Amino acid sequence: MFRKLVVALSLATVVTNSVFAQNREYALVIHGGAGAMGSLEDDPEKSVIYYAALDSALMIGNDMLAQGIAGAQVVMAVVNYLENNPLFNAGKGATCTIDGQFELDAAIMEGKDLSAGAVAGVKTVKNPINAAYAVKTNSKHVMLSGQGADQFAAEQELELVENMHFATPKTMAWIEELKEKSKKNGTVGCVVYDTEGNLVAGTSTGGMFKKQWGRVGDAPVIGAGTYADNASCGVSCTGHGEYFIRHAVAFNLCARNKYLGEPVQEAADYIIKTELNTDAGNGGLIAIDKEGNVAMSYNSKGMFRGYLIKDKGNDQPEKGVAIGEKMVIWNP
Ligand code: ASP
Q1: How far is the CA of 218 from the centre of ligand 1 (A)?
Q2: What is the pLDDT of residues 187-223, one digit of tens each?
Q3: CB-based pocket (< 6 A), ligand 1
Q4: How much of the chain is helix, strand and coil, in % rounded to 5?
């Protein structure tokens, strides 16, 4: 049962080493939320649980991308895995509203045609990212919210659950206490550069702990928490949503890349570490540009994250997972 951890590279080295983008066959980057979890990487027992979950999500994506499956299907499968994993603040494991309920937000966007779908405040959809995809694909709208979104998901024959399905022992304790301090596990997100060169971004979240019922965060707001455009980048964000909405973070990154020609990592760092670098605006993002370059940036103590890149001519993809600064190669 021993797993071998090789602390291999700092994040900066990983990104610098990954610039041969004209050779990129596919790429995948994920996040599991940002926050004050930086010290978790020093706890070997707790951190391995997160590394294993992040790596499993990467490998689900890798298997599908290697078969040439389209980016949107890959994003949904990866996000479904993270939504069903109670470690993260999305689907089961989602944080709760001030009145002890679960209201979930999700969005998905495709860079090839700017098609997008989002749901906000759904209470019964087991996998909100699937409802977002259904809005994108089977409705003429971009975002549905509340009861209308739940009803639409039912009509689409998506799997429905009782609201308390999303509870875990941890969130039940929060509901009972509803402590003053902000609590969250970690939103999830995935960006894919598929074998066709299409960029797809998806984000799914329970939102912020003790949020006002009816509150909508950045995740389902196209251009704030989620965006994809094959002319620039795919982006998924995590953090204090109100600030990500005000700064239109996901679109802002794409605009910096597209109009200023800023490399994706530079644009991500500028927005996260300069524009958003306040206590209130903490969080991070993951992104991939139109050449398959991967970027990850955060201004909090940590961000659960992982990347996987496969270049043409290489047998194996390169990958890594991280919580705080250390990028870890995970070999189960
Ligand atoms: N961005 C999410 C929201 O504000 C929360 C998070 O990413 O942790 O709803």
Answers
A1: 7
A2: 999 999 999 999 999 999 998 888 888 899 999 999 9
A3: 33, 89, 184, 187, 205, 207-208, 217-219, 225, 238-241
A4: 35, 30, 35
Q: Is the pTM of this model over 0.85?
A: yes
The Cα–Cα gap between 14 and 239 comes to 23
- Give the residue numbers annotated as catalytic, written as ranges: 187
Q: Name which residue sits closest to atom 5 of ligand 1, judged by CA.
A: 207
- Give the total residue count for the chain: 332
The residue whose CA has the least distance to atom 9 of ligand 1 is: 207
Structural domains of the chain sorted by starting position, each given as residue range(s) with its CATH number in brackets: 2-330 (3.60.20.30)
8 Å CB contact between 310 and 317: yes
Nearest atom, ligand 1, residue 186 CA: 8
Amino acid at 33: G
Per-residue pLDDT reduced to its tens digit, 9-32: 334 334 433 444 569 999 999 999
Atom number of ligand 1 nearest to Cα 244? 1
Q: Where are the alpha helices (DSSP H) in the chain?
A: 11-16, 44-66, 71-83, 128-138, 146-155, 169-177, 241-246, 249-259, 264-269
Atom of ligand 1 nearest to the CA of 242: 4
Can you tell me whether residue 157 is helix, strand or coil?
Answer: coil
